[in-house]
Amino acid sequence: MTSEEKAPRPLGDLERVVMEQLWAAPDALTVRAVYEQVSTTRDLAYTTVMTVLDRLAKKKLTERERDGKAWRYRAAAPREELAADLMRDALDRAGDRREALVRFVDQVSDEEAALLREALARLEEREG
Fold first, then answer.
1. Rounded distance, CA 11 to CA 35, Å?
2. What are the pLDDT digits (tens) for 8-20?
3. Which of 27, 53, 68, 90 would suit a FRET pair with 74, their CA atoms being 20 to 30 Å apart?
4. Model-level pTM?
5. 55 in the Ramachandran plot: left (φ > 0), alpha (ψ -120 to 50) or beta?
């Protein structure tokens, strides 16, 4: 991510639900398809889902393409990339980056700590 790009803000509840539908789909979805999936568990208007998808596109979290009169949406990146961007943004806003990292590491499980060690070892191999 370049310095000119804005890091994504954490997703709101409805944005997260909509993004989950997009991440789970093998192909781009219309507003109608997302609405039909989301409305099975939530009482929402079609226009609400349309607005959420439009906002996600403006935030560059989705990509959209025309399909006749409708738009088809897909996630712009995997959820793991979004999570990494959010973590980086949180660190940038933390004030004391070192202290934030130390506190984060104090909270990870043994399995997560092992994954972090593996990632750092790969990074050192690439740089070394």
1. 18
2. 667 899 999 999 9
3. 90
4. 0.76
5. alpha
Is 97 within 8 Å of 91 (Cβ atoms)?
yes
**Mean pLDDT within 25-44:** 96
Question: Is 88:7 a contact under the CB 8 Å cutoff?
Answer: yes
Locate 34 and state its tokens: 């997302």
Q: Give the burial class of 94: count Cβ atoms within 10 A of its Cβ; 0-12 exposed, 13-18 middle, 19 or more buried.
A: middle
74 φ, ψ to 5°? -140, 155
Short-list 11, 7, 10, CA closest to 19:
11
Contact 4, 16 (CB under 8 A): no
Assess contact for 89 and 38: CB atoms under 8 A: no
